[in-house]
């Protein structure tokens, strides 16, 4: 006797089934991440070392140097973490497992949530760890408005996830993704003032900084750390806009698949 | 169960399907054969709702493929497994995605572990498995929820004897339980063993359909005798058994070797290609 009985669940049961499938997908992706944690560890440890080394230099060079070194390196290495999202999604293409999931009962939205939720949590954890480390070890004052800082981290991680998903949807190989994320991350984050404080950069770079998501992330996080709610809102809105555009394109590609082409 | 009518699919300048029609009833195994590029995998992908046809209609138990997600078990031609995930974890994932819970899931995993002989490596990561073992795992993930329609795209390609035997046993059993099965392959003997209806695809359409006996009826096989003095007799014939008896009756010297060749898949392709062209 075959199991297909034509049974259609009601709304509550459908939601329960949906959550059940999302949990199965998220568990699977968490397993995959935990079994290959190298990239994540390096994007947490490297900025910790650099914060220690660069903090005296920042403090001497600019006002509020401690905040700038912590948030700057946090932004820079969180941009590098785009490759975690990109590689995780691209791997589904190269393993050809994405199409197997698309054939399952789980609709595209569930597949995307199940796939990206663990990556999103990794990104949030990375930024949170770096911020806590900044407070405990580097001397960053403990922010007065913790929910504002947490909200900023959630927005920035969401933006990075969407950019990573977009890249994974359009590149043809892990090599291409690596070039784009490494070069792009270094360019965007340093142009945004994450490596060298913006005030020390040439005028053209200061003008161009506004084009970089890194700049808006830095502005948002520095405002959030300072407890400046109004100053946090504009960069957060811009980042959410970027995330929605990138995310919409990525969702479209991931939902429709790539057919037989698209990979080297 | 499955009805595909007049499917057309184009990839740029390449016409992959050109009026492809095929139906499969519940409990029926249809062996879809054809050379590479004949349109077999494109057909499987359309029925799986992975790609859309340019024109034509597909229904699965009266519903379009878009409304049949999760009711179709698909084992694609290429291996598509997570390298760092174990066999058991794969079965858990695909079982849960198809809605199985606790006891039903455990029971389905247990059944497939036995049927496809996965027990020896069920807790190993798939990257550490041989190609044949990976094929069995892939088939198991497609079979886990007992789907009403199974699409098995070359499930035994490059597989060893154990894999082939296990796969054919499970396919026969599932068809016996009422599943409709599309089984693409290049190995005609498998389809004979499965007692499948054979559909021959060529240039994006089905050009012949029938049982093995119906399709090869009238195609010449060959009888080959070698006498003890190494003299060889070859006779092309549509009735190998009768011809062999006749040759044996007329043989004047002892015979050291007897070989009878039945028509092969290539003979079938060739004959269909000739009739198609004419």
Structure keywords:
heterodimer; A: 264 residues; mainly alpha; B: alpha/beta; Rossmann fold; 2 domains; three-stranded antiparallel β-sheet; 9 helices; 28% strand
Walkthrough of the structure:
The complex is a heterodimer of chains A (264) and B (278). Chain A is an all-alpha fold. Chain A has one domain. Chain A is built from 11 helices and no strands. In chain A, helix 3 packs antiparallel against helix 8. Chain A is globular. Chain B has 278 residues and is α/β, with parallel strands linked by helices. Chain B has 2 domains: 214 residues, P-loop containing nucleotide triphosphate hydrolases (Rossmann fold); 62 residues, no CATH class. In chain B, 35% of the residues lie in helices and 28% in strands. Chain B contains 9 helices and 12 strands. Chain B has a 6-stranded mixed beta sheet with strand order 5-6-7-3-8-9, sandwiched between helices. A 3-stranded antiparallel beta sheet of chain B has the order 2-1-4, with helices on one face. Chain B starts with a strand and ends with a helix. The model of chain B has no long low-confidence stretch (mean pLDDT 88).
């Amino acid at each position: 006797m075959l199991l297909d009985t034509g049974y259609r669940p009601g709304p509550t049961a459908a939601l329960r089934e949906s959550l059940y499938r999302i949990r199965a997908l998220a568990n699977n992706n968490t397993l995959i991440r935990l079994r290959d944690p190298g990239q994540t560890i390096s994007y947490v440890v490297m900025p910790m070392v650099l914060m220690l080394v660069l903090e005296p230099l920042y403090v001497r060079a600019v006002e509020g140097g401690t905040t700038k070194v912590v948030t700057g390196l946090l932004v820079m290495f969180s941009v590098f973490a785009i490759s975690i999202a990109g590689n995780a999604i691209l791997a589904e293409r190269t393993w050809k497992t994405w199409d197997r999931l698309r054939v399952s009962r789980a609709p595209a939205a569930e597949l995307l949530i199940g796939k990206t939720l663990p990556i999103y949590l990794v990104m949030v954890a990375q930024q949170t760890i770096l911020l806590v480390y900044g407070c405990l070890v580097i001397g960053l004052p403990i922010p007065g408005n913790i929910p504002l800082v947490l909200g900023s981290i959630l927005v920035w991680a969401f933006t990075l996830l969407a950019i990573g998903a977009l890249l994974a949807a359009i590149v043809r190989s892990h090599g291409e993704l690596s070039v784009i994320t490494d070069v792009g991350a270094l360019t965007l984050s340093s142009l945004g003032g994450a490596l060298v404080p913006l005030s020390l950069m040439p005028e053209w770079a200061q003008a161009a900084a506004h084009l970089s998501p890194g700049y808006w992330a830095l502005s948002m996080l520095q405002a959030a750390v300072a407890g400046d709610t109004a100053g946090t809102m504009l960069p957060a809105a811009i980042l959410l806009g970027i995330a929605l555009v990138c995310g919409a394109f990525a969702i479209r590609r991931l939902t429709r698949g790539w057919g037989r082409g698209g990979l080297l | 169960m499955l009805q595909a009518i007049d499917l057309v699919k184009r990839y740029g300048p390449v016409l992959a399907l050109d009026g492809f029609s095929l139906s499969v009833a519940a409990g029926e195994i249809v062996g879809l054969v054809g050379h590479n590029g004949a349109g077999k995998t494109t057909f499987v992908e359309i029925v799986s709702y992975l790609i859309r046809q340019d024109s034509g209609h597909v229904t699965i138990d009266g519903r379009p493929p878009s409304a049949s997600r999760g009711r179709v078990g698909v084992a694609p031609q290429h291996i598509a497994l997570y390298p760092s995930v174990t066999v058991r974890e794969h079965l858990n994932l695909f079982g849960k995605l198809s809605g199985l819970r606790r006891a039903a899931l455990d029971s389905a995993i247990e059944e497939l572990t036995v049927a496809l002989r996965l027990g020896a490596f069920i807790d190993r990561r798939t990257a550490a498995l041989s190609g044949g073992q990976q094929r069995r795992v892939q088939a198991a993930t497609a079979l886990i929820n007992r789907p009403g329609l199974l699409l098995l795209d070359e499930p035994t390609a490059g597989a060893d004897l154990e894999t082939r035997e296990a796969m054919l046993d499970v396919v026969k059993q599932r068809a016996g339980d009422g599943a409709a099965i599309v089984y693409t392959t290049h190995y005609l003997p498998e389809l004979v063993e499965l007692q499948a209806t054979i559909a021959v695809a060529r240039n994006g359409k089905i050009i012949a359909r029938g049982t093995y006996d119906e399709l090869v009826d009238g195609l010449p096989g060959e009888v080959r005798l070698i006498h003890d003095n190494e003299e060889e007799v070859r006779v092309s014939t549509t009735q190998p058994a009768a011809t062999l008896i006749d040759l044996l009756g007329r043989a004047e010297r002892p015979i050291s070797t007897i070989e009878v060749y039945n028509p092969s898949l290539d003979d079938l392709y060739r004959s269909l290609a000739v009739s198609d062209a004419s």
